[in-house]
Amino acid sequence: MSSIDIRLATPSDMDAMAVLYAEAFDPMQPRLSIEQYLTPPGAFALVAQIDSAPTTHENTSVAASVAAGYLIGRVASDETEIFSLGVANDFRRRGVGRALVETLCALTAAQGAKSVFLEVAADNPGAAALYRSLEFKAVGRRKNYYRDPGGARVDAIVMRFDLANKGLD
Predict the structure, then answer these.
(1) Is the entire prediction scored with pTM above 0.90?
(2) Are 37 and 25 in contact (CB under 8 A)?
(3) Which DSSP state fits 47?
(4) Residue of 94, 101, 2 whose CA lies nearest to 46
(5) Are strands 115-121 and 153-162 parallel, antiparallel or unpaired?
(6) HSE on the CB side for 41, CA within 13 Å?
(7) CB-hemisphere CA count at 13 Å for 167?
């Protein structure tokens, strides 16, 4: 697999992030959702890009980079919160989500964060497994926090990662 490049998102990444959000979560007003996540003070986004297969045009090989995933979070005092993480279906289980979370941890630890919090839907075992593999621990449960596409309510598992215990503080 091509290397994963993680960088801070810019305004020009909004459309790509909205497409990823729609694919991963909800196709209704994905750009508005992304914009709302970025509203709180301290909020920022990371974008994961992967080089796509080179294409040939007029005898010239051109490699393009595609957005494979995004992460939106914020730092508040000594805590980081992950608001949203989405990975394109074609790039799931290839290390994109892991690279985004690891980058967030390193960046926010450098800003003084001591811990990272997130909520993950109880019916999303793939995401929960990723976070557990990164040593996040379940610390709570929010009843009926999410609504699935069919309208059913789904609990959120609150998870925490201690940056200080990993030498990232």
Answers:
(1) no
(2) no
(3) E
(4) 101
(5) antiparallel
(6) 2
(7) 0
Within 25-124, where are the H helices? 30-37, 96-110
Query: Mean pLDDT in each 10-residue stretch from start to end of the chain (169 residues)?
Result: 86 93 85 92 94 58 73 94 94 93 95 95 93 96 89 94 73
User: Distance of CA 7 to CAs 12, 13, 67, 101, 107, Å?
Assistant: 13, 11, 11, 12, 11
Measured in residues, the chain has a length of 169
- Residues annotated as catalytic (active site), given as ranges: 119, 131
Q: What is d(CA 103, CA 8) in angstroms, rounded to the nearest whole number?
A: 10
- Read off the tokens for 62: 């051109």
b (16+ CB within 10 A) / e for 63-95 = eeeebbbbbbbbbeeebbbbbbbbbbeebbebb
Identify which of 119, 122, 125, 108 has the alpha carbon closest to the alpha carbon of residue 162. Answer: 108
Which domains, from first to last, does the chain contain? 4-52+64-166 (3.40.630.30)
Between the alpha carbon of residue 51 and those of residues 6, 22, 92, the distances in Å are 12, 22, 15
Phi, psi of 3 (to 5 degrees): -70, 155
β-bridge partners, 6: 48
